[in-house]
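Feature request, filed as a ticket because there's no other form

It would be nice if the structure record came with a short human-readable summary line next to the tokens. Right now we just get the raw output. Example of a typical job, pasted below so the devs can see what we mean:
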Amino acid sequence: MMKIKAIFFSLIFILSFSSISNSQNNPGSFADLAEKLMPSVVNISTTQTVVTKSNPFPNFQFPPGSPFEDMFREFGTPQEKQSSALGSGFIIDEKGLVVTNNHVIDGADDIVVQVNGEKKFKAKVIGRDPLSDIAVLQIESKENFIPVNFGDSDKARIGDWVIAIGNPFGLGGTVTSGIISARNRSIGLSRYEDYIQTDASINSGNSGGPLFDMKGDVIGINTAILGRSGNVGIGFSIPSNSAKPIIDQLIEFGETKRGWLGVRIQEVTKEIAEIEELDEPRGALVASVAENSPSEKAGVKAGDIILEFNGTRIREVNELPIIVAKTEVGKKVKVKIWRNKKEILKTIILGRLETSEFGYKAQQEKLNKELENVFKEIPSIKISVRILTPKDIKEIGLPNQTKGIVITDINKDSPFKVLQIGDVIIEVQKKKINDIESFEKLIDKSLKSDQNTILVVFYDKKGEKNYVGIKLK
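Raw output as currently delivered:
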């Protein structure tokens, strides 16, 4: 009987302990924490100006489906329309510094920040980094604001409780909770990826908002979701420890200063490890070395396997770019390399990525140059065209997502002589033009049909949208 009593009391003790343990780990409410943090989370709305034309004959109606219906609707006095977007952010300084995603404010003419669902302020961009998708804004006000602190994202563990606060679908001030589902995720969105995965509900408009731990510290910047239709319980946040150095640089310099090795790397597979007699698949295989790069100057060669960088062991290939980018430009680092089945040590003075031929600005300039030099003659209509570039979009003042082709030459006998060199064709017969091939196909189709006239939509060099009927035959 005593034995049975002992077992009974043991069970009661275990159940009681389990209940106490669960009550300690599971928060009864997030209300106090949410109330404390809400004043530091902001809703961000951006606007972009698009020039259109109004119909000078509002009372005149064309038959339904007529190609001239759109033409005359848009013909007339130029008018400005506002394209808007929504996002989230959080205050990190009492003077009104705000952190958000770069894609939230990219291309914006005006940025408005709403604090705690009440006051609205204009904001300007202090600095932005497309490679990490981080931007820092300054609220244009002399008021003092309530900032939040960054936490140590390296201490965040899978299974820890987190809450997200943001502006999903423009609703504003929305709090969701969940746990950290995974760490060190890479999903192919940017060059430097080390995302925290969470099942806290994140939707369109949450971008740039904070992911908090239970202390109320920011451990992540909510950036992406899996699934175009909305939340499916898989969201991704930039870890605070990855974001903080970038944010500090953007505040100090208005731009980033990343370390650069000058190597193109790939995974060390099991087969490669066996061939090289490496103990296990690890490190980063150097596929090529850029000319005049820090690595070339230090004697790094294609085929080398980088095992260790500045004292940090490299396990996976994607770890190396992240570690290098965080390292100070100009610093001398020791790099342990596996070559000819033995370890060797190299000393490399890091360059700066942004000013290298692989930097973001250099890559954009290179892309613009390549696209500008791709001309194609279309004999059937006696014109030459090239693809629209990001540089064109910026110079003409077109909406960011504009696609089309630029006229580079027009023969005097061309049916397109009503247009001018530099005009940007975006539609033919109400079909969007994404590239030269799609334009050619539509022209060929029209020439082979019974149609004598086609409707062309284009932007002129002033950025004004126009409709014109062109006789092909």
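Something like this underneath would help us a lot:
The two ends are 107 Å apart (CA to CA).
Residues 143 and 386 are 50 Å apart (CA to CA).
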